[in-house]
Design goal:
Blueprint lengths: L1 E8 L4 H12 L4 E7 L4 E6 L4 H9 L4 E4 L1
Antiparallel strand pairs: 1-3, 1-4, 2-3
Amino acid sequence: MAQIELSVQGMTCMHCVAAVEKALREVPGVQTVAVHLDSSNATVEGDSLDAETLVQAVEGEGYTAQVR
């Protein structure tokens, strides 16, 4: 199982966290997602993960992201 960590900018509340989590969970291959508002990080685990696809999922919700 692969693990990718993202830095997510623009989250200001738990609604933001929920939106980012939902977007990441919808990416094929994702098994677990943990998004932390205080550190602006997201940890994604799963099989055959593509970092660019994860970044695009977050950016599709209106936030910016980059691989850590």
